[in-house]
Amino acid sequence: MPPFLRCVLAACAALIAFNRIHSAAAQQASPEPAENVTQESETTFSEGEKLFALHVQPLISEKCLACHGADQDAIEGGFDLRNRESMLAGGDNFEDKVLVPGNAGASALYRTAKRSEEGYEMPPKEAEALSQEQYWHLRDWINAGAPWPDEQRSTLIRQQFDQGIVVDTSKALSDDWQFRRYEAQNLWAYRPLQKVSVPNNAHPIDYLIDQSLKQAELPAAGQASATTIARRLSFGLTGLPPQVEAADAFVQQYRNDPGQAINDYAQQLMASPHYGEHFAQRWLDVVRYADTAGFANDYSRPNAWRYRDYVIRAFQNDVPFNTFVQQQLAGDELDDRNGENLIATGFLRMGPWEQTSMSVFKETRQQWLDDITDTVGQAFLGHALQCAKCHDHKFDPVPTRDYYRMMAVFSTTQFAERDVAFLSAENQANFANSDNWVNEKIQAYQQQSKELNQQVSQKREQETGDAKVGDNGLAPGDEASLARMNKNMQRHRLELDRTKPIALTVYTGKTIQYRNVSTRLLMPANPWNKGQFDTDAILAGGNIYSPTDPVTPGALSAAESLGNMNHQPFPASRGKRRLALARWITSPDNPLTARVIVNRVWSWHFGSGLAGNPNNFGATGAAPTHGPLLDYLARWFMDNDWSVRKLNQLIVSSRVYRRNSTHPHPELVAQRDSQNKLYAVFQPRRLTAEEIRDAMLACSGELNRQVGGIPCRPDLNLEVAFQPRQIMGGTASVYEPDPLPSQRNRRTIYAEKIRGLRDPFMETFNQPGPDKSCELRETSIIAPQALTLLNSEEVLQRAIAMADQLIQRQATPKETIRQAFEICLGRQPDEAETMLCLQHWRQHAALPAPPEPTAIADQLQRTVMAEKTGQPYSFVEHMPAYKNYQADLQPADISATTRGLAAVCLVLFNSNEFLYLD
Amino acid sequence: MNSAQTHHRRAAQAWVTPTRREALYGIGAGLGAVALTSMLAADNPSAAPAKAASASVSGTHHRPKAKRCLFLMMEGGPSHLDTFDPKPELNQRHLQAFTRSGEMESAMSSGKRYFVKSPFKFIQAGSSGISLSEPWKHLAKHADDLCIYHGAQVDSVNHPTACYQLNTGNQFGGDPAVGSWVNYGLGSENDNLPGFVVLPRSSYPQGGAGNWGNGFLPAKFQGTPLRAAGSPILNLNPQQAILPQAQRSNLDLLGKLNQKHLDARPGRSDLEARLKSYELAYRMQTEVPEVLDLAGEDQRTLDAYGIGNSNTDAFGRKCLLARRLLESGVRFVQAYAGNWDSHDYIQKAHGALIESVDQPIAALLADLKQRGLLEETLVVFCGEFGRTPDNGLRGGGQSYGRDHNAKAMCMWFAGGGTKAGHRIGATDEIGAEAVQCVHHIRDVHVTLLHLLGLDDNHLTYFHAGRHKQLSQFGGEVIQELLA
């Protein structure tokens, strides 16, 4: 790092100093009108020259030259901005009035940049519009006579006066970028963690949060009720509603000792396996977990579930986060005799990917390299790196070289489904059922295929022409069905690997080209024998066919320089590149990693991060609202064995966590903290899609709490399940649920996640798509949510099961309603509510009995288009799952009394109180 | 001149002051989706209430040529060579050996390849003399309304990636569909209907619903598929076991419980919006079937669209429904037909497919014209890519079919300010690659937005640290297509 930068980077030990640097930076960024500039009393350079060197020249090269000078043969509008002479000469439209020295108002350069010249707003992209500060610099420079010092003089000016920070990075594509300056507040994430001191007897979260509340003169809301906190803790730590007895015990204890009660209950919740499941779901959002590969074939990834269960185990057993990172990135390089390590590297294969005979391997390989580089950046370092693929990053100190250095880490990483014996912790239940279903499916196709082949060979006539035109005597569906069945048999055969001791993993070696990947990929005996050694180079414009400068494996150079990291060069050649990256990421002096995960955990509890974009810690991400707290927690986290569980314990033990979600003076909050960034109240949230389904199953008593194992198939909206779905070569097999309620009614994290077939219930409630990393769940409020909760079969079935369970307890009607409220909402109903519900119950019990449901047959006729002939054809598909299918409890199975109560339960499932967490 | 550099020179004439686009940023916690969107928007439950009012802000960047768009999505990759791009040279080379080289070599280069001529004759139709293959009997009457474009190219020869790119600009999916962007930009014309309606086939395309997803835009901009079979909108109607009066009483009890809950939490607009969404859902149960009911249409209209004829019924219904939706103020309708993936028997497959869409499309154009709607309706017809002039061995023998081709494709426009009665651009003599007026699909997107009064460079949404736009990183208007 150039020494003159050190002054700005001076470490600030205390919290106050930390704040000061932020406000100082803010002052630097404020617009400076001309009067202020001329007050400067430096002698050697004129103000105009300084404006040019410090502001105008960087502006022109960043915003204008791409179209007005970079390519001499394609200068837009003849408007060349490379030097003063060509500027004065003007362009096609404004002739010599582009730059009128001394008169900004008359200069088209200023008017277009200010966007006041209609039809010629520059730069044309609104997103790139200049700030007021920027076009004022331009104005003041023109008014100062538009001086244009030469490069040497400009450099001198910059060295003497520039106040931004130059960041030492690997090497930029351009010198301009290499030496550009960053505002201090945009580099916070690369700086070493600040030492933040907290008085001994204070809870650090409360101390630091209350400080900013005090500054804003905003009193915090009071403490939430014990029942509210019980629900908050239970959903927050396990994603499930509290069990009635546990909540009761908590409420009792809370009266005497709130702090101890919360500690004990949190410990209890985190000891339940549902804690691991819930936190795993959060992580699976980040890594985009799915059980299929997506795109044209959407092939099964039969062993992906072992990675999912690894993540659950890791959170459950509180594997230190640094180990968790290393296992996922480089478990094989760490120790490939350790099964857990190999399973963990499934992380590297979570994105959608396929190679068909229609694709160029080199391109799909590059697609993966791009995907994993960007994903590792987002998941562990809070940096979307995609931007740097084609050009040095516009806002962050991430040169394109860093992108390709990081990509080089993965260029010897190869896919394989390796043998890994089952671990004792892995759930092997239902293996036989799974295999039986797959085999039945294959056998049914084999049988149909055999019959059809016989028919076809009898019917088939010799084609008459010199090329086949389809005059072969066959019906439209004949050839299409053969192709369809072949494809589906192939797809199902892959599913047989689901129960085998195989892991979706990687190895390090040379790249072997595959034309078509449709079966298990084996690891070669010698990974360095066959294939080619991929060269590591910067790809011009991100284009795989345009390699330029060679690179060696590395990571984010700005984190190394600004963070004062003490790092070793990464190995190249046959070395363990990923392990080096994993160690770099988990190095205690890496400024990003701990901040990123601590921020995620915070956002999982509070609905938003201390830094607002958990996947983006760069200049365009939201800056931290409580920088010192983030730093304190990051340091605390590393000091406490990188333990997520301990961090949770710290968070839930704070008074901030216990706050009420309503404030006694809402107008004060609106006035002083309209964005609710100060934590004066606890931010309420809607349950996630998975939480809604799981909570309904928990309330109805149907939830099978088994942990882990092969994916289950819940009931899916039948219209969606039976709707034909196109895949390469035909139509995918119909979606069949598991035959038994206990198999289907497991937690949603275990539901088979098929990229090409989203569960409409989940999608409607904002479950993120499985293609992109999700940093935080979104909540929309759309009418289909109401339709789903009111009208769908699945919600009705939960209501019926809950009613049935309550009726079996044989309590009085009033007591039954009380229990319904307790189970669903975690509280007692008041008299009015009880009366309303009793009335509703009676009214609905008096309605006529519903018709008997029609059982679903084990065959389905479907009509689709035959690709070869462009005509529709019908076929029958066997659905073995429906041979022994046991439906959940149906309206016709229960008494009128139970049906009436089910109507009450249905309404409770629809209520805001059930769906929102205070 | 490359495309990144020319865009702004041309797109610049501002008509209406650009809207407060910034005000729209960050309303990610969106709302409302299927219908009556603005009703919901009025009660935007966004986490940032101050910004809520702008959720329905809309407006054009310049004088629009078209107010609405009908996108006829010919899924599977229709062959330009057998529809609108005659290549007599192929007759000479029929079944002669074909070699492919270069970057794309490894894709579709298996075995011996051979040229394939079109099985169809071509006719020159209308006073413009535009060429169409013979099966386009009905569309030929509208030749003078068509602006046929031969210059478009895409990046992928795989169906799902190419479909994603055509529909969202991004090959790998996850970004907002064109219809979502258009509605984000223009807002709704009719508060009672969704602004972006998709009429998929009964089987969903490869890549599924991601083809009409809202991506990072608020959920209200999602395409609403009206399903071809079964319930048009999932769960529109209660389970059989729930009687209508039962549902009403459920809603009443729910309303009371929710109101009590809300009263204890004043100012929570999200909870209030949920209350309203239930009333909306309830009304949709009667209103959606009304829109879809074709019973009010006279027999002549039904016949014109080919409804009742088994070959044309499915797409005829989509086209008539599309007209009704557009007429009622839906901004963007996308109707799917296919599957055009004819690797084998072009004559049979494309023949049947053309027949299935020809009469409905012609009837739709006539109907729009007769109602004075065509001028302000941009009609787009295209697939995700075109097809090759050659084929590989199929089942060990030569077959009269074609593979996928990203470098030349089949596309035409009608109405909406496009140059009627013209062919724009050209492919090489064998139709393997576009060689004149060549543009990436992103420029087609930019042009589409332009015709609707939107400037791709201004129609941005801040997400994940970047101002994102349909063209991904900017494109240019294809001037040649404009009337």
UniProtKB/TrEMBL annotation, chain A:
The keyword Iron applies. InterPro entries: Cyt_c-like_dom, Cyt_c-like_dom_sf, Cyt_c_Planctomycete-type, DUF1549, DUF1553. SUPFAM superfamilies: Cytochrome c (SSF46626). Residues 449-479 are annotated as: Disordered. Residues 458-469 have a biased composition (Basic and acidic residues). Keywords: Heme, Iron, Metal-binding, Signal. Residues 1-24 form the signal peptide. It comes from the Bacteria. GO terms for molecular function: electron transfer activity; heme binding; metal ion binding. Residues 43-146 form the Cytochrome c domain. Pfam families: PSCyt1, PSCyt2, PSD1. This is Planctomycete cytochrome C. It comes from Stieleria bergensis.
TrEMBL record, chain B:
Coiled coil: none annotated. Pfam families: DUF1501. Signal peptide: none annotated. InterPro entries: Alkaline_phosphatase_core_sf, DUF1501, TAT_signal. SUPFAM superfamilies: Alkaline phosphatase-like. Transmembrane segments: none annotated. This is Sulfatase.
